[in-house]
Design goal:
262 residues; mainly alpha; 70% helix
Length: 262
């Protein structure tokens, strides 16, 4: 079966042929000739055109051809009309389906947006509650800090007042100095303090006080750190490690170093 394009081309060719045949100009009249010559020509033309169809048959043949072309054209146009109708129906169905799908998508997006808005509102409320809780906690901490600071200030004022009272009391009492007794056999020193003397610093407190870098720099010398003749430092020993070594050795023998002067 020929395609639609072939049919269309054939119809156009037939219509063009029919139109060109209908619009063909009439032949020009023959020039006037003598009767005898005209009779001879007519006889020759009659013999030559004896096999040609008559004008009536030619018109009928041409009319039949045009009728066939029109019938094919009408059939082709009917087929095209049916095809266009089916295509239109398909497009309408597709449009309806797309509208339904778009409606579903739009409703789904609206539901998602509503849920997101609700989540945002819930989060905002939760943040506001948390912010209020934090603000309350900060206010409580600030109040507690103010109370503690006030209590410290009161305690400081009380201690300053007590210190002033003690200073006033101490001015009225005679000052006493500790008496140092040296044990020659053990090589130790011992303090004997009067009963009304203020409390004195213990030996351990004095040792702890003498462990800083300033004391180590001032006290560690070759004369004070040497057990024998020499500089008092062993190998790559530093002054701080020498202080620790000497303190440990004197602690085991219960001997107070010479650089701790009471």
């Amino acid at each position: 079966m020929p395609s639609k394009t072939a049919k269309r081309n054939a119809i156009e060719r037939l219509l063009g042929a029919c139109i060109s045949t209908e619009a063909a100009p009439a032949p020009a009249p023959a020039p006037a000739t003598p009767a005898r010559a005209r009779t001879a020509c007519q006889s020759r033309d009659a013999v030559a055109h004896a096999d040609e169809p008559s004008p009536r048959k030619r018109r009928r043949t041409r009319l039949n051809r045009v009728t066939d072309v029109l019938a094919e054209s009408i059939e082709f146009f009917h087929e095209e009309h049916e095809r266009l109708l089916s295509e239109n129906a398909r497009l309408v169905d597709d449009l309806g389906n797309s509208r339904l799908e778009n409606g579903r998508e739009s409703r789904r997006h609206k539901r998602e947006l509503r849920s997101k808005d609700q989540e945002i509102k819930d989060l905002r409320l939760e943040l506001m509650r948390e912010k209020a809780t934090k603000r309350t906690q900060i206010d409580d901490l600030e109040q507690e800090h103010d109370n503690q600071r006030q209590s410290w200030m009161d305690e400081k004022e009380r201690l300053q007042q007590r210190l002033g009272e003690l200073e006033e009391t101490g001015r009225d009492q005679p000052r006493t100095h500790p008496i140092v007794v040296v044990d020659e056999q053990r090589g130790t020193r011992k303090k004997v303090v009067a009963a009304n003397a203020p409390p004195q610093m213990s030996q351990s407190a004095k040792r702890k006080r003498a462990t800083g870098p300033a004391h180590a720099t001032q006290l560690i010398t070759p004369e004070k750190t040497s057990r024998k003749a020499g500089d008092g430092l062993m190998g790559s020993e530093t002054r701080a490690s020498a202080v620790t070594r000497i303190r440990r050795s004197t602690r085991r023998r219960h001997v107070v170093p010479n650089y701790i002067d009471d």
